[in-house]
Amino acid sequence: MSNPHESQLNYPLGDRLPAFGEVIEVAPGVRWLRTGLPFALDHINLWLLRDRDGAGREGWAIVDCGIAADATRAAWEQVFASGLDGLPVLRVLVTHMHPDHIGLADWLCERWNCRLWVSATDWNAARMASQQTTGYGGDSAARFFASHGLTDPDALDKVRARRNYYASMVPSVPGAFRRLMDGQRIRIGDVEWQAIAGYGHAPEHIALFAPSLEVLISGDMVLPRISTNVSVIDLEPEADPLPLYLESISRLTALPADTLVLPSHGKPFKGLHERIAQLLAHHDERLAEALAACAERPTSAADLLPVLFKRTLDLHQTTFAMGEAIAHLHALQSQGRVRAEAGADGVWRFSPLA
Questions:
Q1: In whole numbers, what is the pLDDT of the chain averaged over residues?
Q2: What is the pTM of this model?
Q3: How confident is the model over 197-215, as pLDDT tens digits?
Q4: In terms of DSSP bridges, do strands 115-118 and 191-198 run parallel, antiparallel, or are they unpaired?
Q5: How many domains does the chain have?
Q6: Do 33 and 48 form a contact (C-beta atoms < 8 A)?
Q7: 19: helix, coil or strand?
Q8: Is 117 exposed, middle or buried (0-12, 13-18, 19+ CB in 10 A)?
Q9: Domain range for residue 59?
Q10: Domain containing 159 — which CATH number?
């Protein structure tokens, strides 16, 4: 969603953005860089944290990596040449297993002979996804979307053809890692960071909060202008991720209201509590719209697309939108507000409970 309350957030850097391959300091010892993505959402924010290893060697920790692509590697090489003050990378931290976050982790760890830090759940999910297509394309994904009403033959053919989709952006994942867990405190250089697990967007997403800096690296859990994708995929077809996501972001209101939020997409901002309130209200509105649609007639996830998304969607956006529509229907089902029934055509449709 485009944020209709943009003026209620504060962007301390204004419209300033780092060019690809350049860095901007956003807090003491915290640098911001961006790399491109081949989607409508055309960039990801990555972070450098001033670090020191156990032997006292000075260097940097990387947070998130970008997808495996020549342009991303070239941007990183430019950063290595001019953005690290001549110091090495000492470790790589990844918020979660989606390709734009973990795609180049193996390359970076090999390049600098350092360790990957990530939640155990997302390390395992990334390892599995890089070796098969479940949940990200291929026949299983096409069958799953068809069972929720996606009938366009061209779209389904394109989903089936994406058999190497995840692996094309994450060709390999480091074979060993250091585990990140909720509540864990990690000293990176002179700053202590707290790991905060979040659910609903990824299996075990880890955000990082530095109390001394009042800085939150939010990953994809809180974004300033768009809502985080919360999807059901064929790997876990009965999943109910939306309540998990809403509970996860609600927990973040325990952080100071003036926290500087460093999101994975969009600009660094202040106004964390306001943004969380906006996101909670957004999903309340979407749930109400979905329930109203179901009250008119038995409704599939595909039927909900024009209700929940008021714009033309490309294939990449359609797969995310289908996952989100299913997530909203499952949330209504778990709340006891709708029931699901498979029709003679094999499509799941949802109707209000009497």
A1: 95
A2: 0.96
A3: 999 999 999 999 999 999 9
A4: unpaired
A5: 1
A6: yes
A7: coil
A8: buried
A9: 6-295
A10: 3.60.15.10
Quote the pLDDT of residue 134: 60
CA 252, CA 198: separation in Å to the nearest integer?
A: 10
Percent of the chain with pLDDT over 90: 91
Q: Which two tokens stand for residue 42?
A: 């055309």
Dist. CA 306–CA 318, nearest whole Å: 11
Tokens of 134: 């479940």
The answer to whether 338 and 291 are in contact (CB under 8 A) is yes
Side chain identity at 306, as an amino acid letter? P
301-308 contacts, C-beta under 8 A, 24 or more apart = 301/148, 301/149, 301/150, 301/325, 301/326, 301/329, 301/348, 302/145, 302/148, 302/149, 302/150, 302/151, 303/149, 303/349, 304/328, 304/329
Judged by DSSP in three states, 30 sits in strand
Give the confidence band of 2 by pLDDT, cuts at 50, 70, 90. Answer: very low
Specify if 320 maps to a domain.
Answer: no
252 is a domain residue: yes
d(CA 180, CA 341): 40
Question: 182 in a domain, yes or no?
Answer: yes
CB atoms within 10 A of CB 328: 23
